[in-house]
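Researcher: We're teaching a course module on how sequence relates to structure. For the next exercise, students receive a sequence and then see the predicted structure as tokens, so they can try to spot secondary structure elements on their own. Here is the exercise chain.
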Amino acid sequence: MLYDVFINYIFLVVIITFHEFGHAWSAWRLGDDTARLLGRVTLNPVAHMEVIGTVVLPLLAMFLSASGSALGSFIIGWGKPVPVNIANLRRKPLDDILVSMAGPAMNVVLALMAMGVARTGIFLHSAMLVEACERLALISMGLCFFNLIPIPPLDGSHVLKYLIGMSYETFWRVSQFGIFAVILLLQMPPVREFLALSTVNSVRLMQRLFFFG
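Model: And here is the predicted structure for the students to work with:
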């Protein structure tokens, strides 16, 4: 159990780092250097971690889940939010969406990289390397689909707010309490099954892309 928790947590930190880097880098390239000036355009995990959201809560959730406790499903971790000043973006609605989608996109990139390494593991007959890479890809794609849930403050909600014409003020007010709605949503079996199927099927597609047997 300790080994699984340790490996999963290390992978989670790597995934969060890539995810938040994606937000920071894309915001910088699209005209807002707020995150860059704060040192967030980096793959240094420390720059994207919070004590509570990235250390305490994820580890607590993992230990609870590993021990069979259902309480683990009520705990959600997070990385340090990347500050984005929308006023600095050149094409505000489009660039805001691009910045928000850059995080999940990095999850996909990381999963593809992991499957590429896994293909090398197959060539080297290293079952341990293949298993580790597949686990990293699954966690990364799981967090990708999770972040696409269109409830503030998750990334998918940035698309929704433009589709329904939600004001920035309303969006940020909802974001303060939206995480509780997300936690409740995740307790619904159909939602969890949809996320699980999306995650597994996306990784299987990647395996086919890399000619897994």
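Model: If you want an answer key for the exercise: DSSP finds eight helices and no strands in the chain. The two ends are 30 Å apart (CA to CA).
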